[in-house]
């Protein structure tokens, strides 16, 4: 067991970084895109609203695995070839953005209408009100579901193994295949996922308790 | 027109507003000269809140002329949206509003609430704005609460912060929409005291309220609204005297018991 572990260690070290890097970058990019989608979703312009609705509907309504396979194996038939890691990052980002946009949207609509009126009455416009008054409160409201999304995303990175990204799950598969010790490897890798997510959850709880003091 | 005539802060003619086919304001005419404290009373559903919200265009009137702080707002559809937004902004830059439910920015400290308009609308530098903010908080008796978040303040304290916030941008007119209706009786006095001081300084104020005693002491003029129209418009002493008529006396009897 220790011998297996020692053999796997160098590979696992790299794989952990890929998994965490993929998950965190997809979350950050997904937040940025998700925010734009949420703003489009509540915009006064109907075509923009419709576009955002369609986006969320498609990327939330189809499996992430299908999206990933389409990007990696499907796009090349249109001459678009994307490397494994960028493919995985793109798919995870698009997928996460669909969910996160809904978190932002409900956060924004959860901010009391009186906050808007107070800002308007002092001469702020829509965007300034959004930026200075509404979004800071909306993000606090959206924090718990955003945390769940981040944890979900960390686990979803395992799908990147299907497009040859060498992350945790793929390393477990590879070592399992050469040593026939699948059981130990998958338990080990499962434990690593769990550990990463525990750390994230603790971070989220800390952030929530820090910020929730500021809301009524 | 003679140059000696002082331009009224508010001039409203034939103001109409309907919500979903329901006529809430049916032709309001009003002029408010600078420095006047105008109290608006009336039963709930009389349109007084809608009326005061029309004055800074939180509600868009359907019909009628509205001129506030020298800015004329055209009826809907006359000007392109952007031009109308500019007019509305011009009015909001010169007026402030105090709300029944305070509406302090929940994620900002008392001081940040007070200086938000200075910093993000009027482009003041933070240190100068903070200095002015502290003066205003001191004025409403809350200098020691500068760092508190709204959630840590009592209702009366919140409303006093809101008044300091309303004062920060140096408005020509402050609109008060039932500023004490959400407060316990003991907390009302601290808010009314601050408002009384403002009136004493010559601030032009429109106050929707049920506080009869406050109106008796502070008002220059009292408006009584009913069913979307001005039913009675009298100087204070006349309003509380026999001239006001049966309906007003009946209403005053009901709210001040």
Q: Care to describe what's here?
A:
The complex is a heterodimer of chains A (216) and B (257). Helices cover 81% and strands 0% of the residues of chain A. Chain A has eight helices and no strands. In chain A, helix 1 runs antiparallel to helix 6 (126-156), helix 5 packs antiparallel against helix 6 (126-156) and helix 7 (168-179) packs antiparallel against helix 8 (182-212). Chain B is α/β, with parallel strands linked by helices. In chain B, 39% of the residues lie in helices and 24% in strands. Chain B has helices spanning 48-55, 81-94, 110-121, 126-139, 155-168, 185-200, 212-218, 236-239, 246-255, and strands at 10-19, 22-32, 37-41, 63-68, 71-73, 95-98, 173-177, 205-208, 221-226, 229-235. A six-stranded mixed β-sheet of chain B has the order 6-7-8-3-9-10, with helices on both faces. In chain B, strand 7 (173-177), helix 6 (185-200) and strand 8 (205-208) form a beta-alpha-beta unit. In chain B, helix 5 runs parallel beside helix 6 (185-200). The longest helix of chain B has 16 residues, at 185-200. The relative contact order of chain B is 0.16. The mean pLDDT of chain B is 93. The A-B interface holds A 112, 114-115, 117-125, 128, 132-133, 136-137, 140, 213-216 and B 56, 58, 85, 89, 92-93, 95-97, 99, 101-107, 116-117, 120-121, 149-151, 165, 169, 175.
């Amino acid at each position: 067991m220790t011998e297996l572990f020692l053999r796997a260690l160098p590979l696992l070290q790299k794989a952990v970084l890929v998994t965490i890097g993929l998950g965190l970058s997809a979350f950050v990019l997904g937040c940025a895109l998700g925010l734009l989608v949420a703003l489009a979703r509540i915009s006064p312009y109907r075509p923009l609203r419709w576009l955002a609705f369609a986006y969320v509907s498609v990327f939330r309504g189809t499996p992430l695995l299908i999206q990933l396979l389409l990007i990696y194996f499907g796009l090349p038939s249109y001459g678009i070839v994307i490397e494994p890691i960028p493919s995985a990052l793109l798919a995870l980002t698009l997928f996460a953005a669909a969910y996160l946009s809904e978190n932002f949207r409900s956060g924004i609509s959860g901010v009391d209408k009186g906050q808007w009126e107070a800002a308007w009455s002092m001469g702020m416009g829509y965007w300034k009100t959004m930026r200075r008054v509404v979004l800071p409160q909306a993000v606090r409201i959206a924090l718990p579901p955003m945390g769940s999304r981040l944890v979900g995303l960390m686990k979803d990175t395992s799908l990147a193994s299907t497009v040859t990204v060498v992350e945790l799950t793929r390393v477990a598969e590879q070592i399992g295949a050469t040593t026939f010790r699948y059981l130990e490897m998958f338990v080990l890798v499962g434990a690593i996922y769990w550990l990463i997510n525990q750390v994230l959850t603790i971070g989220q709880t800390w952030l929530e308790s820090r910020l929730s003091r500021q809301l009524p | 027109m003679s140059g000696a005539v002082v331009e009224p802060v508010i001039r409203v003619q034939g103001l109409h507003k309907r919500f979903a086919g329901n006529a809430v304001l049916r032709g309001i005419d009003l002029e408010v000269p600078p420095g006047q404290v105008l109290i608006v009373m009336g039963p709930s559903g009389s349109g007084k809140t809608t009326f005061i919200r029309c004055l800074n265009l939180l509600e868009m009137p359907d019909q009628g002329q509205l001129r506030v702080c020298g800015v004329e707002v055209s009826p809907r559809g006359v000007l392109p949206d952007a031009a109308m937004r500019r007019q509305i902004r011009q009015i909001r830059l010169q007026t402030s509003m105090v709300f029944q439910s305070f509406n302090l920015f929940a994620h900002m400290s008392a001081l940040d609430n007070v200086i938000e308009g200075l910093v993000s609308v009027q482009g003041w530098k933070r240190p100068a704005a903070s200095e002015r903010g502290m003066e205003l908080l001191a004025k409403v008796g809350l200098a020691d609460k500068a760092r508190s978040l709204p959630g840590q303040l009592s209702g009366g304290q919140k409303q006093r912060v809101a008044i300091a916030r309303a004062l920060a941008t140096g408005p020509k007119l402050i609109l008060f929409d039932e500023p004490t209706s959400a407060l316990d009786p003991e907390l009302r006095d601290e808010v009314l005291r601050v408002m009384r001081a403002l009136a004493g300084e010559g601030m032009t104020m429109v106050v929707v309220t049920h506080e009869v005693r406050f109106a008796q002491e502070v008002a220059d003029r009292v408006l009584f609204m009913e069913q979307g129209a001005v039913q009675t418009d009298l100087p204070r002493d006349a309003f509380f005297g026999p001239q006001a008529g049966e309906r007003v006396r009946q209403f005053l009897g009901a709210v001040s018991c």
